[in-house]
Amino acid sequence: MSSKVLVLNGPNLNLLGTREPEVYGDETLADVEASAKATGEALGLTVTCRQSNAEHELIDWIHAARGEFSAIVVNPAALTHTSIALLDALNTYDGRVIEVHISNVHQREAFRHHSYISGRADAVIAGCGVHGYDLALRHLAKLLN
Ligand code: DQA
């Protein structure tokens, strides 16, 4: 379990590559997931990736991660700014949590400045593009090994 990391992506991130590429870049979710797995492998981490547009599915995956995964890298997308339910789910999980945002949410609309998740996260990465996922895994490799 110590090297198992779950990478979770929330609503609309399935459209990466075609969704607002000027904000989110032109790499697809498949590219991001392949890169996360390759980075993980190089770091001795086993990476599992999941994406959903449904809040309940993300919550179920967090519940299932309890005792199974030693860390979660999560980009909750818009649920970052709205979901107490996702925060509550992460509060039932006692592994490491890294929150990732592709864009710098603090440079954007005011409603993106607040995160329900950040208070639970061990670290927050924003504005590094999709490289943020790799940075999160590198940080986890340090924390977990
Ligand atoms: C995002 C930022 C959120 O505000 C937005 O709703 C997203 C993506 C990001 O990765 O930059 O869907 O989490």
Structure description:
Helix 2 packs parallel to helix 5 and helix 3 (55-65) runs parallel beside helix 4 (84-91). This protein has 145 residues and is of the alpha/beta class. Helix 4 (84-91) links the parallel strand 3 and strand 4 (96-101). Strands 2-1-3-4-5 form a 5-stranded parallel sheet, with helices on both faces. The model has no long low-confidence stretch (mean pLDDT 97). The protein has 5 helices and 5 strands. It binds 1,3,4-trihydroxy-5-OXO-cyclohexanecarboxylic acid.
What profile does the largest beta sheet have? 5 strands, parallel
Low-confidence stretches: none
- Largest sheet strand order: 2-1-3-4-5
Number of strands: 5
* Percent in strands: 15-25%
Bound molecules: 1,3,4-trihydroxy-5-OXO-cyclohexanecarboxylic acid
CA-based gyration radius: 14 Å
Question: Can you describe this structure in just a few lines?
Answer:
This protein has about 140 residues and is of the alpha/beta class. It has five helices and five strands; from the N terminus they run βααβαβαββα.
